[in-house]
Amino acid sequence: MQFTNDSSMSSNIAKTEFSEQDFRQFQQNLRKETLMLMEWFSEDVFENRQVMCGFELEGWLVDQNCNPAARNEELLARVNNPLVMAGLSKYNFELNVAPHPLNHCLPEFLRGELQTLWDSCSRHAREMGCQTLMVGILPTLQDRMLTLQNMSSMQRFHALNREILRTRSCHPLKINIEGPNDRLEVVHNDVMAEAAATSLQIHFQVPLSKTAAFYNVAHVLSAPMAALSANSPFLFGRELWDETRIPLLEQAAHTPSFVDPTGRPVSRVTFGRDYVRDSLKEVFLENLDGYPVLLPVTFNHDPGMMNHLRLHNGTIWRWNRPLIGFGENGRPHLRIEHRVPAAGPSIPDIIANILFFYGAMLHLQPEVPQASISFEEARTNFYAAARSGLDAQVRWTSGNSMPVETLILQHLIPGAILALAAAGFRSSDLRYYLVDILAQRVASHRNGAWWQKAFVKKHGPDFRMLTQAYLENQNLGTPVHEWSI
């Protein structure tokens, strides 16, 4: 079984240019399917049997000099696995791990599946004279490398590029990111700057009765997740935010959509407008009314497959996004996709991040922390954590400001451990991933961003040397807080 992947729109499309009739027909189909979805919410036809977990991980293909290698088509042909797909650029590929129930076997399953897929990709890459790397932003990447020539050949990427530019009246995309001591300003006439960032996307399938609460909690958790997983401090040789992916992705595909109640423009890559009040159907109604159609590909399939709705939802990149999928029995399900963490730095770190997210979600959901943390506070916390990583200050339920490190160590990790223990997880797994790895990483402030910055501070801005050392540490399979510099 595999989660139906509307988030990356894994199926290709037949054309890249669309007529006004295409847009009208798609809008009609989208409205029809949205109305059908509203009935599903009212009748609760969704799969409710058990909580399911899964994730996607994006990776880099690099050459022997640690520069990006535009050869993902050859890699995918060699690997020949439907769980391994193309990314936006020819430098990138994506791994998909099949869903698994939230039970004591989950840690071993996730690590085993990821290790097997990664080892397969790495082996085939070596046969090509290349290497695989998991990192938020590749340190050796240069702006001149992000051209349409290096966009993956799948037509959906080229269609997205064309339509995003059309919605902007062909105005160029401006990237302007200011760090504590450096600043980057570049202009792109395409969406390829988005390909500079690679992510870990965590999926959480839950019963309808709990989706609204979990969706809101995912927003509250976005700040601590950004802080502990920050792994993108450099872009085109500039030291910017600890998690530079966040502003980069928001600016690299910026399109005008609508304005929220505070007057803030809401784009397609967004933290969102507000918590949901009663149901995730509010988000899909916002999709229909607030976001112009980007890819008006019409399907002749059963409207009950929600093809138009899922394709449209897949062109709106909320940091926490609701998804509709279908199981092997054909029954629809709801899941939450958490898009905040960067890729890397190591497989143990990734599994620790995922388990912490699930445990913290279970811990916080009954408390409904959004009742005492406003959406604006959750948003402010998120961008503070993306900017400053584990040095960030955040506001929590008391209304007081505290170091995000204190929040994670004193509140969220203990709560996540208790919640996962109650779900039957082994104490040995919880101790290894959440104490020996995650708590040690947070207490030492040694996440991926810290390690990269510390390396440059010691050795200077030699990004090839940095990437080579990063790769060697990653291949050892040790968590980042133990890496040598």
Automatic annotation (TrEMBL):
<dbReference type="InterPro" id="IPR050141">
    <property type="entry name" value="GCL_type2/YbdK_subfam"/>
</dbReference>
<dbReference type="GO" id="GO:0004357">
    <property type="term" value="F:glutamate-cysteine ligase activity"/>
</dbReference>
<dbReference type="Pfam" id="PF04107">
    <property type="entry name" value="GCS2"/>
</dbReference>
<dbReference type="GO" id="GO:0042398">
    <property type="term" value="P:modified amino acid biosynthetic process"/>
</dbReference>
<dbReference type="InterPro" id="IPR014746">
    <property type="entry name" value="Gln_synth/guanido_kin_cat_dom"/>
</dbReference>
<dbReference type="InterPro" id="IPR016602">
    <property type="entry name" value="UCP012666"/>
</dbReference>
<dbReference type="InterPro" id="IPR006336">
    <property type="entry name" value="GCS2"/>
</dbReference>
<protein>
    <recommendedName>
        <fullName>Glutamate--cysteine ligase</fullName>
    </recommendedName>
</protein>
